[in-house]
Amino acid sequence: MRGNPTKNSNPIFALNYLFKKLCLTFLAVLLISGLGISQDIEYARKTLNKLTSKSFHGRGYVKNGDGKAAQFIEKQFSRHGLLAFDNSFFQQYDFSVNTFPGKLKLSIDGVQFTPGEDFVISSSAPSVDGTFDLFISPDTINSAEALAVFIEDKDLSNSFLVVQGDFKKLYGKTIPGIKGIILLTEKTPFWHVSNSGQVNSTIWLKIKKDHFSSNASSISLKAENIFFSNYLTQNVIAFVKGEKQPERFVVFSAHYDHLGMMGNKTIYPGANDNGSGTAMLLDLARHYSLPENQSDYSIAFMAFSGEERGLMGSTFYAEHPLFPLSQIKLLVNLDMVGTGSEGITIVNAKVFPDLFEQFKKLNEKGQYLKEVKERGESCNSDHCPFYDKGVQSVFIYTRGKEHMHYHTPFDNADNFPFTAYDGLFKLLTNVVEETENQ
Asked: Closest Cα partner for 347 from 305, 304, 386, 402?
């Protein structure tokens, strides 16, 4: 009876057996590597889906949306074994904020308008419930100066004035003698809460122009506001201790707050702004928490609240740091990083040209992103309070038309692109590694 050949009895079989084993091992390594790369995006997507879920209420100041998001971030830091300063991941502080947790209804000549899609109300508006006359201004009333002259001899105390033009500096402020002002816009109106630190008497509305009839004569508006003079919120801060120079820090920051709710039904999910940056921040925390990725420097992760209100969280931290700001070698702020088909822009790149060249050369070497574009100084995100204190700080955002929603209810996680996620993630870790060697 002929026995079955074995690796010991047949040299050819042994070679085939060894070759197959090597191939399987190689494929396993490739598979594990591939899972490692895809796992980053998978974790980021799961995180984004959670941050933008209805249970977080837009991560604002209605129904404790920011607090629920902060608790989620804290659990992620704990899950990955990160360390806390002062025995807590939370850094509490407060600020004033006006909110709209109640009913919000608008109709013009009996036609109902949808909050967030057809119109927005200024975040400094008071409660209101009534029907008012509409006064449509001429097209020449398109600036604050023209408006001031136009209303001098008019009684608009029970009227809403309809205008078009550039009123950015005036929007949301009190205009004596006017009940309200409707600013017509070409696109879905953006909502902002940066002027919600006080309640003003004039009610400003932004309404899509194509939804407004030039023959309209009356407006019915119901809005319920609650003003908090000392709203308690929190930054969420953690770090991974460095192996060789733990007293030196690289900091990744991102604001986790968004606009929250405008009325009791309209939620602003804030996927790109800034669920995307928060998701990447948490993924970087996961990455550096792994022993094989331990950095020579300590890596701190700062998730700020209050950015939409006016850089409140980062400003508070810069004034009350948990370790000396002089120990920060580099701070990278991530805000709106969900696209990337056109590359990234680095704010403050022109202020720190050597750092920009470092980003650019590493990107060219790794072929991570289509373009690394420089931009000058701008106080438009949470890097600014640190930069003002002398910290080498930059703000990175991605560019691309694959997700253009901003400050509307449509900035959600549905079909979210994360186009350049892998490339940006790898570029950032490369920069950290090279920074340590300088």
From this structure: 386
Give the separation between CA 357 and CA 367, rounded to whole angstroms.
15
> How far is residue 88's CA from residue 345's CA, in Å, rounded to a whole number?
34
Amino acid letter, 120 = V
Q: Which of 272, 228, 270, 208 is nearest to 100 (CA)?
A: 228
Task: Please give the CATH superfamily to which domain 43-96+229-436 belongs.
Answer: Zn peptidases (3.40.630.10)
Neighbouring C-beta atoms of residue 46, cutoff 10 Å: 11
The pLDDT assigned to 1 comes to 37
Q: What sign does the CA torsion over 60, 63, 66, 68 have?
A: negative
Cα–Cα distance for residue pair 302/317, rounded to 1 Å: 9
Residue with tokens 């056109």: 342
The two three-digit tokens of residue 137, written as one number: 């201004």
Weakly modelled stretches of the chain, pLDDT under 50: 1-9, 12-15, 17, 19, 23-39
State residue 357 phi and psi, 5-degree precision.
-65, -35
Give the pairing of strands 260-262 and 119-121: unpaired
Cα–Cα distance, 151 to 160 (Å, whole number): 12
Q: How far apart are CA 316 and CA 319, in angstroms?
A: 5
Cβ count within 10 A of residue 426: 17
Does the model's pTM come out above 0.85?
A: yes
What's the residue count for the chain? 438
One of 3.50.30.30, 2.30.42.60, 1.10.510.10, 1.10.10.10 is the CATH number of 103-223, namely 3.50.30.30
For the chain, what are the domain ranges?
A: 43-96+229-436, 103-223
